[in-house]
Write a structure and sequence with these properties.
Strand content: 15-25%
CATH architecture: 3-Layer(aba) Sandwich
Oligomer: single chain
Number of strands: 5
CATH topology: Rossmann fold
Bound molecules: shikimate-3-phosphate
CATH superfamily: P-loop containing nucleotide triphosphate hydrolases
Strand order of the largest sheet: 2-3-1-4-5
Helix content: 40-55%
Shape: globular
Order of helices and strands: EHEHHHEHEHHHE
Length: 152
């Protein structure tokens, strides 16, 4: 068994509270916390919103995948990924061997209230109904791929 640390990756819809929950959990367990979007923004020197605007969603997804590849090698860490990161099975597989995948299961209305006035690219482009449909599809996926589900 190559893994002897505590590696956790948190998934969930936009606005589920992944970063807040992850930060608290990491502090309690004395683990490092990393947020994938924040990491991309800091290292690329451009906001996620601008990446979508300038280069498009497929470019962002590629970028996301590259960062996942490096993050999945880390030990003793809690990572919050983006709401769409695990739509790619490749990303799931990068983490699933060594990381516990936690799904933060927050209801749609709570997520929506938190994100509706944000400038997240998907929120700007999608209607509430479209977001709700995306939520349904992703929730099903998150339930399938996660090791632990936390209702919040
Ligand atoms: C996305 C969620 C965002 C960010 C990007 C795309 C998505 O992250 O990665 O805007 O596809 O759901 P959060 O879930 O942290 O908002």
């Amino acid at each position: 068994m190559k893994n002897s640390g505590t590696e956790i990756v948190i998934c969930g819809f936009m606005g589920a509270g992944k970063s807040t929950w992850g930060q608290r959990f990491a502090m309690k367990k004395e683990l490092k916390f990393l947020d994938l979007d924040e990491m991309i923004e800091n290292q690329e020197g451009i906001s996620v919103k601008k990446i979508f605007e300038r280069f498009g969603a497929p470019y962002f997804r590629k970028c996301e995948m590259n960062y996942c590849r490096n993050l999945a090698e880390l030990k003793n860490v809690v990572i919050a990924v983006g709401g769409g990161t695990f739509e790619s099975l490749e990303n799931v597989l990068m983490f699933s061997a060594d990381f516990a995948i936690i799904f933060l299961d927050t209801d749609f209305e709570t997520c929506y209230l938190r994100i509706k006035d944000s400038n997240r690219p998907l929120v700007v482009d999608f209607t509430k109904e479209q977001l709700q449909e995306l939520f349904r599809q992703r929730r099903k996926l998150f339930l399938e791929i996660s090791d632990i589900v936390i209702s919040s």
